[in-house]
């Protein structure tokens, strides 16, 4: 993402007219505080924990796709002090974004984020005692995440599916976050802010109380300028970002001439909720293979999308109707079985002899109805059967390697098939084969 689009994405949420501060008293019920301060206060007085938090158990492996709620707190706190240290793994949150989608960054659940961060520190930190971070690419492996459906590469910062072929998505390490949305600041900026923050405040004992807004009369004690924005520190917990875009500069000059303070976006160091090891998905007790039918050649990713919908719907129904199953640490996993694309069959012969007239309709028939003809042909039928068998066995073997407890705990396996896929699956399970029946008939005739 380039700098310009990044700043537009941030400041479109924080319109200058909405962020003009009129009077501090207007904001007494909506004062936003640093995440570390909230954690101290909540731990000392749990009964007053009226602060909404991010629900990381909302649905399934994509349950955090819903917008992150605004986190607010009352201003009438008891002042606290804190020693500024480096961020701990539980304060850092990793995010992912699937390819081809304009969605915002989505937070990994706590369990995944902690494991990714530990892996990141293990292979990034050289252990030399102060020489910084070094990448050991030869030793870096991947780590499973998102319900073990994806693998994360901390070197390339990519997240790619485990069981099917698809384009990899991006991941991001979040250390500094935007107020209200709690979206992460891009790493190139966040790393610089963290470096400047530690240079200025490391090992210092500071008050954790935050000002209500940018109008509070605090002097700027530190300043960092980037191409598209600049950041001001007024204390260790009062950090604001101001856009350098011409439109925002003009707006600030107008509001300043009217007696208003300049509007900025508050930044938070550390995520709004600590990552916890127990924030993870239940164990898989039921594996469901989703098998496609005819027409998969037209859209190889369709079975993946449909399987994702099944997964989300099943998770929603379980949460609403089968709470006892969820409480017993049980869940079903759905894996797409894409068996058609690996088959050669006539190796393109039909397409090569397809007339150009009404080409679109003919290609549609070649990609759909021809699958039925292939299955009814003694020449190609076995290839379709063996293709589905190989893919089912491959997925099951991969799954058992990543979940060794599944067979030991007598996990269940089901097959959800559609159209031609259901016919082939039934024939595999029952062992029915017209070729075998014909051979038996011929042999019986010869013997008699």
Structure characterization notes:
The protein has helices spanning 3-11, 35-44, 110-124, 187-201, 246-257, 302-321, 323-327, 349-352, 359-367, 369-376, 381-402, 405-408, 420-430, 434-447, and strands at 81-83, 93-97, 106-107, 142-145, 150-153, 158-161, 169-174, 176-178, 205-207, 222-225, 229-233, 239-243, 265-269, 283-291, 330-337, 412-417. It has 448 residues and is an alpha+beta fold. A six-stranded antiparallel beta sheet has the order 3-2-7-6-5-4, covered by helices on one side. A five-stranded antiparallel beta sheet has the order 8-13-12-11-10. The longest helix is centred in the last third of the chain and has 22 residues, at 381-402. The termini are far apart. The model is unreliable at 13-78 and 127-139 (pLDDT under 50).
Q: Would you spell out the secondary-structure blueprint of this structure?
A:
Elements: H1 3-11, H2 35-44, E1 81-83, E2 93-97, E3 106-107, H3 110-124, E4 142-145, E5 150-153, E6 158-161, E7 169-174, E8 176-178, H4 187-201, E9 205-207, E10 222-225, E11 229-233, E12 239-243, H5 246-257, E13 265-269, E14 283-291, H6 302-321, H7 323-327, E15 330-337, H8 349-352, H9 359-367, H10 369-376, H11 381-402, H12 405-408, E16 412-417, H13 420-430, H14 434-447
Helix pairs in contact: 11-13
Which structural class is indicated by helix and strand composition?
A: alpha+beta
Strand content: 15-25%
Order of helices and strands: HHEEEHEEEEEHEEEEHEEHHEHHHHHEHH
Helix content: 25-40%
Shape: elongated
Query: With helices defined by DSSP (H or I, 4 residues minimum), what is the helix count?
Result: 14
Largest sheet: 6 strands, antiparallel
Distance between the termini: 77 Å
């Amino acid at each position: 993402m380039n700098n310009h689009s990044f700043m537009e994405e941030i400041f479109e949420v924080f319109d200058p007219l909405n962020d003009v501060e009129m009077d501090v008293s207007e904001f007494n019920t909506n004062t936003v505080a640093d995440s570390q301060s909230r954690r101290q206060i909540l731990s000392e007085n749990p009964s007053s924990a009226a602060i909404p938090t991010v629900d990381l158990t909302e649905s399934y492996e994509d349950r955090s796709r819903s917008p992150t709620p605004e986190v607010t707190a009352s201003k009438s706190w008891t002042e606290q002090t804190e020693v500024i240290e480096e961020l701990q793994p539980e304060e850092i949150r990793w995010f992912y974004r699937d390819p081809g989608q304009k969605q915002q960054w989505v937070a990994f659940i706590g369990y995944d984020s902690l494991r990714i961060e530990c892996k990141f520190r293990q292979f990034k930190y050289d252990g030399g005692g102060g020489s910084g971070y070094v990448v050991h690419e030869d030793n870096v492996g991947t780590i499973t995440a998102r319900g073990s459906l994806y693998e994360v590469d901390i070197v390339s910062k990519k997240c790619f599916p485990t069981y099917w072929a698809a384009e990899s998505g991006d991941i991001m390490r979040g250390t500094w976050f935007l107020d209200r949305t709690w979206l992460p600041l891009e790493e190139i900026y966040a790393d610089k802010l963290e470096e400047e923050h530690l240079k200025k405040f490391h090992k210092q004992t500071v008050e954790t109380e935050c000002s209500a807004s940018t109008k509070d009369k605090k002097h700027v004690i530190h300043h960092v300028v980037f191409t598209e924005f600049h950041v001001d520190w007024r204390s260790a917990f009062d950090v604001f970002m101001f856009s350098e875009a011409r439109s925002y500069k003009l707006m600030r000059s107008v509001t300043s001439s009217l007696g208003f303070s300049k509007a900025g976006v508050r930044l938070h160091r550390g995520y709004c909720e600590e990552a916890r090891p127990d924030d993870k998905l239940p164990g898989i007790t039921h594996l469901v293979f989703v098998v496609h039918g005819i027409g998969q050649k037209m859209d190889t990713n369709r079975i993946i999308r449909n399987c994702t919908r099944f997964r989300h719907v099943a998770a929603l129904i379980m949460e609403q109707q089968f709470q006892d199953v969820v409480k017993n640490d049980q869940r079903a996993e759905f894996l797409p079985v894409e068996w058609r694309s690996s088959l050669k069959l006539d190796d393109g012969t039909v397409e090569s002899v397809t007339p150009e007239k009404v080409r679109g309709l003919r290609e549609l028939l070649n990609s759909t109805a021809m699958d039925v003809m292939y299955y009814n042909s003694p020449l190609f039928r076995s290839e379709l059967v063996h293709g589905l068998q190989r893919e089912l066995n491959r997925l099951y073997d991969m799954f058992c390697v990543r979940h060794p407890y599944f067979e030991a705990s007598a996990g269940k396996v089901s097959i959800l098939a559609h159209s031609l896929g259901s016919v082939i699956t039934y024939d595999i399970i029952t062992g029915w084969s017209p070729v075998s029946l014909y051979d038996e008939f011929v042999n019986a005739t010869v013997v008699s």
